[in-house]
Amino acid sequence: MNPRTRCISMIATTLLALAGMTSPARADDERSAWREDSREIRQDRRELRGDYRELAADVADYRREKAEGDVAGMRRERMEIRQDKREIRGDQAELRHDQREARHEYRQERTQGMPAQAVNWQARSQAQASPAASNAQRNNGRHIGWQQGRGNPHRS
Predict the structure, then answer these.
(1) What is the pLDDT of residues 46-69, one digit of tens each?
(2) Cα separation of 108 and 111, whole Å?
(3) What is the 3 state secondary structure string of the chain?
(4) Which of 3, 15, 55, 143 is least surrounded, with the fewest CB atoms within 10 Å of its CB?
């Protein structure tokens, strides 16, 4: 084998090997980002479930205080219930934000690799320019169904 040919084939083999090594690394980065987003969303859901448990416990405590007639206890439990509801609203907002952000990142990753698509727009030709003028000559302003003989006494 010619030394020059051998050198070129070795360079080509090296380039193919390098190209093969860079693609999985990028895929790993994308998967790790996706995993991180999924972990954040799962954590937000866990926090939200915990907040709902606290709210249920505080509502039960409030009912118990009300049954006992303890007005000060009822007032304290109402304050805790309000605090639980504030925490729930904050966790819901965080969960919505994380889900939207993950969805946006996913869409961005998908559209980056896609080539732009051609749009099928064409300028109007002369025949399409005024359909009313061309229809008036063909069917005298009547519906096309009439022209084809479905009950039209003036069939052309």
Answers:
(1) 999 999 999 999 999 999 999 999
(2) 5
(3) CCHHHHHHHHHHHHHHHHHHHHHHHHHHHHHHHHHHHHHHHHHHHHHHHHHHHHHHHHHHHHHHHHHHCCHHHHHHHHHHHHHHHHHHHHHHHHHHHHHHHHHHHHHHHHHHCCCCCCCCCCCCCHHHHCHHHHHHHHHCCCCHHHHCCCCCCCCC
(4) 3
Predicted TM-score (pTM) of this structure: 0.52
Give the span between the Cα atoms of 29 and 24, in whole angstroms.
9
Residue at 123: amino acid letter = A
CA distance 140 to 124: 24
Distance from C-alpha of 123 to C-alpha of 129, rounded to nearest angstrom: 10
Cβ atoms within 10 Å, residue 84: 19
Which residues does 99 contact at the CB level (< 8 Å), separation at least 6? 41
Length, in residues, of the chain: 156
